[in-house]
Specification:
Elements lengths: L1 E3 H8 L3 H9 L7 E2 L5 E4 H15 L4 H8 L3 H36 L6 H15 L3 H8 L1 H12 L3 H23 L7 H11 L11 H14 L1 H7 L3 H14 L4
Antiparallel strand pairs: 1-3, 2-3
Length: about 250
Amino acid sequence: MEVSVEELAKLSGVSVRTLHYYDEIGLLKPAIRLSNGRRTYTTEECLRLMEILFFKKSKFSLRKIQAILDLKNADKIAALLKQEEVLLKEIKNIENITKSIERIVYHYKGNKMTKVEVVNEFKNIENKMKAFEKESEKILGKEKMDEVREKCKEISKDEMEQSARWNIQFFEKLVDAMKSNISARAPEIQKLMKEYFEQSKKYDLPITKQSCLRIRDVLCKDLFETYERVHHGLPKFLSVAIETYAGSLTE
């Protein structure tokens, strides 16, 4: 089997530009390169591209993919098993967070959460977030994360209740804005976004464009169905609002 770069792009769903880039960095080189620059790929390169796409779906970086593809099969299996373990933990964390948000949806539908339920729910969320601490420590450093942990210990039950009420009101305001046809980029919504992210200051967490966009991914992509049930179009509205706010930050 021999295919051109255009044919391989059509077969795989990967753009020609991306295939050229993979060639440039040595990740996927064509079997034949003619004097006029035309690239030809054989079955072997097609199979390698399948592996690349698989590892990308498993959240490996291109640099790591290149290193893995150069390994023996046994080492590839070990790398995959390790990544599977990470992904399973992430799935479990998202499932737990989804359950918490479903309880907030329950509240929206008129089944008001009691004081005890609110406190317990935030205790649950606090416990779930511990699973993300190791990853955050890699980004912020151990010293910074130790400071954050100390801040968390200082949170009282009253503060947790207050935070729960604030978050419920936050989403109620977003839904009201949507019903009133207010743009997600409107000043009042951006002010609300600023208040939302400044909640992180309680824990001395940095508010950066990257951290805002990561929260957007969790709220608007990982938990899309949950927020869509709260109000149709809420994930998209919230995504635009967060992206606009993140774009206003200077790093």
